[in-house]
DNA sequence: AGAGCTGGTGGGAACGTGCCCACTGAGTTG
DNA sequence: CAACTCAGTGGGCACGTTCCCACCAGCTCT
């Protein structure tokens, strides 16, 4: 950590106020409570603005209350509700004349069907939940999650399906999630980064709610999943290190209660065995997919095996931590130690030196789980999908 | 870009297949169509698994169809529907006896109120949309968005409100968003990164849908907003550079059709004027908040003003691009050129050298816009909130 | 010419909930 | 003791949609 940062207040000469008080004050303001609002060090350009006076939302009643319903449209078009419904839903059994009348009535009134009412009768919400556990690795520092979100969002954009994002940090949020699922606010669930003994997948399965995992729990996971070829990718990475003449290859592995973690470690060990190199216990340290955890793991590896000449880290973020720790201990990369990561996030291009890594198609994983889920929602009797996507070694300067 | 990466197929010895074909095939699989499924280079551990046979979702009919309704509960508890509703919604007008009967019936049946039906009658969905335009800066490479998402999610977790994430890339997705808004699938909208002439905010306002912006369009923006003190923060950054003895201070500004871009440039220029340094046109280049754009801008700055001795970049990501370009052109940071960024994302700690930057409370911005929106939804007559949060200079090694 | 089909149509019911309002019975008041 | 209050209760209705089914007109076929 380059944590020795000096800080100066922006407020230029004015005392830096207690940050807790500041937060509290802000919350009060955000809740609109009337209180002292002079706001030390913060500009309050607040208040009613002239144009709208005391009624800030322009004509909320009219805009909200008098929306045209299917009945209004039917009356204007001179047809029954059913005919309007048929036109809206693209049924063939409507005469050309009636269709035109309905369409022009819809255009005139600016009618948009109420999705909630529709959902009530069809028991479909046209929304899926994307669940991201934030406990172990934070959205933002771990690029994997962002990429998955992008892929999911893109795949969903083609359909009328909405994406409900649920970050799960603690037990309270976990409960809220199960609540949301029980309320049937979504037609299906996408789970990212599942741990082996997580109760949620089983819960979803027994609730009969379509569920697709990004990353499986086991090879024979009963739920549909899409994941990268972790074993194969890791093996390729280690073979690459062997090709570079490295023999003392250490591993910063991922959590062993996740298949990603286990799979990548296993692939690594298989490649070593293949080359006739015995697996040494003290050349393996388990990280938690965070940069800080990887630094700690790396530190312990250097103590246990000072003669190591290469490190395979089970994620780019961990590889970044490995690089920092190696540099802190005066090892040169790649001269003294080669480093390989896993994922090929944009992070890999920005480490120093740029990181050799195993590319996994993260965004495509996102897109594929989304499409798979939509398909399972559409057709509940379809067999489970199990898909393992190829990886690819990207050689840069760290090896 | 360290784009000169060599690539090897993971598939070890087998030919790398055409990637377009691969994608197409995957989509086919994801849609569950029956086709050739041998899957070159990809493992297909697919198919019905033994336990469930041809009916993979366990008892979907029962789980989906026979959920207890308020009527079921009422019957079991020996009360009317209204009483159950009252208990569920925490009304006081229920006898202790009835309440207990209802609660035990709820527990026995595992009753959860149907939020869709509830939404139909209350015309509330208990969901808000978070809209992130992805055209200019990608979620994932720009840490700002992730941090906002975290903040929003955390603030929403305390309530029963769901977060609908909408990434808007192109016009089609834009239309879908307006559609979604028209369908009233959300109670309010959070907008991030709005451009000056964006039609969406006005649309939302005239629709009477509560809307809060992260970052304003103008100082007197008619919509509620929460933003950082861009002008003040930028001025602090430049004053810091002046304190370091720099005099030829260049700026890589943000897009000038956004208030963030304009405000940070203006703060920068104000600080220079304060110090009696004339603003020079050729010391300003406009970037687009991407790393690549910043590199291009930096390149042009170095051509126009080779004697520059400091750069203020309007975002961390752009500062990272500036650092790369400076290094590529053989300038040392901070010896030859000082660099300051804006945001203090985790990125700033990982550049080389670590970046001096203006910290903005991004996650707090997310939390605040969420709370503000909830408050406006709850109480539509509340005056608009305008909140400018303080920034703070964080000094690291790049200056 | 009558029976049978078939494309086109619309009214009724249902989805599950909240809210209005009318009702009950016990307690309080004049 | 009658009138009156009031906490507690439940039935009916509405929310906006889809789906089932009954219906109708025009056509073909025996």
Automatic annotation (TrEMBL), chains A, B:
What the entry lists under PROSITE patterns is as follows: HTH_LACI_2
Q: Which SMART domains match?
A: HTH_LACI (SM00354)
Q: Which Pfam families match?
A: LacI, Peripla_BP_3
Residue ranges occupied by any HTH lacI-type domain in the UniProt entry:
68-122
The record's region (Disordered) falls at: 1-68
Give the compositionally biased regions (Basic and acidic residues).
Answer: 1-60
What keywords were assigned to this record?
DNA-binding, Transcription, Transcription regulation
| CDD domains assigned to the protein according to its UniProt record, in alphabetical order | HTH_LacI, PBP1_LacI_sugar_binding-like
Q: Which domain of life is it from?
A: Bacteria
What PANTHER family does its record include? HTH-TYPE TRANSCRIPTIONAL REGULATOR GALS, LACI-RELATED TRANSCRIPTIONAL REPRESSOR
Name of this chain's protein: LacI family transcriptional regulator
Give the species this sequence originates from: Streptomyces endophyticus
